[in-house]
């Protein structure tokens, strides 16, 4: 390989409720090589994994594909496709968040495997829990809280 620009990197993920942790990961992945391929899990594959996504695949893939550091988006349709994708796209580096540490070492015979540190205190799972908790607050309580905040604001003015 002549330089880093000749290095192809691939990663996989659902990328639901796109957040700063996703952006940080993509930016760090792009620093590993000159070409970044992102495989976005399809809705069907997420169901197989027992995951529910809030945004459909087409929207998640469009968001990821619009990021300047992403060169190519492909659908992730199964666990088994990683090895064939690495061969098909001439991948040099398979990289993913360190919450998967050790899970993809079996690919190290065909490419370099890298686990990147996650962004501290941010995850889609936690965002979904927060949203669920917020949505479980009775509507009347939210209105009362808003009214109290409005009164406090007027008192401060």
TrEMBL record:
Domain Cytidyltransferase-like: residue ranges: 10-129
GO molecular function terms attached to this record: nucleotidyltransferase activity
Keywords carried by this UniProt record: Nucleotidyltransferase, Transferase
One family name in Pfam for this protein: CTP_transf_like
KW Transferase (keyword) present: yes
Record-linked InterPro entries: Archaeal_FAD_synthase (IPR050385), Cyt_trans-like (IPR004821), Rossmann-like_a/b/a_fold (IPR014729)
Protein name: Glycerol-3-phosphate cytidylyltransferase
């Amino acid at each position: 390989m002549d330089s880093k620009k000749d290095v192809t990197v691939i990663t996989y993920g659902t990328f639901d409720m796109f957040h700063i942790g996703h952006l940080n990961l993509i930016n760090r992945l792009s620093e590993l090589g000159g070409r970044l391929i992102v495989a976005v899990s399809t809705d069907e594959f997420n169901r197989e994994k027992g995951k529910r996504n809030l945004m459909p695949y087409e929207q998640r893939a469009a968001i990821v594909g619009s990021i300047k550091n992403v060169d190519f988006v492909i659908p992730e349709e199964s666990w088994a496709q990683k090895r064939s994708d690495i061969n098909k796209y001439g991948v040099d580096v398979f990289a993913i968040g360190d919450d998967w540490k050790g899970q993809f070492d079996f690919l190290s015979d065909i490419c370099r495997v890298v686990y990147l540190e996650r962004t501290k205190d941010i995850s889609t799972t936690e965002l979904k829990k927060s949203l669920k908790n917020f949505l479980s607050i009775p509507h009347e309580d939210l209105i009362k809280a808003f009214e109290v905040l409005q009164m406090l604001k007027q008192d401060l003015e």
